[in-house]
Amino acid sequence: MVASALAPVALGFFGLGTGYFIIGGTNLFEFPEKGETTRQTLGSWGIWMPGFLQFVTGILLWGGLTWFDAFRDDHLLYMAALAFTAYGVHWFVLGWKMYKGFDPRPDAWMAIAFLLLSILGTVNFYLGGVLPVAVLFFGLTLVYLSEIWARFTGSETGEKSVALFQVLTGIWLMYLTYAVTLDIGLGWALPK
């Protein structure tokens, strides 16, 4: 079996970035105004873009790491597979919860686990010498720190900080989408 350099990470980056723009942007800029149909639209986007695209990316990475040995030379993809799969399932739940209008307060407890996963990703990619992806996980760390604050306190400032870090991390995710795609497609060497 020949190893592949074509890990499908751009798909997961794009999915999460799109979700962060839609959900974070709506909450940060309060447009469109909150209501039942807006909530349902946000929930639908949450399930399909960050949820489905990250989950598919994670499953493809797991398959390439375990069944097909396609990514055997890049051990950092183990962390990527863990993160994409876990964050994908997490977004299925968040999207469904938004769609149905469920209570967001229990998300404070979820955010603790995802904060720890984000810190693990930051450490893995930083020590592995992949600084741009470590920056992504640092952004995720800020999202979940804010999420813990917002959910435990009900603070409007906490809600705005979640949205701000989602939008900023979404911008970085789009950069990573471009960096990976241009590198693979055109042979560019953007940092990633």
Automatic annotation (TrEMBL):
Entry's transmembrane regions: 6-29, 41-64, 76-96, 108-127, 133-150, 162-190
Keywords: Membrane, Transmembrane, Transmembrane helix
Organism superkingdom: Archaea
Protein name, as recorded: Uncharacterized protein
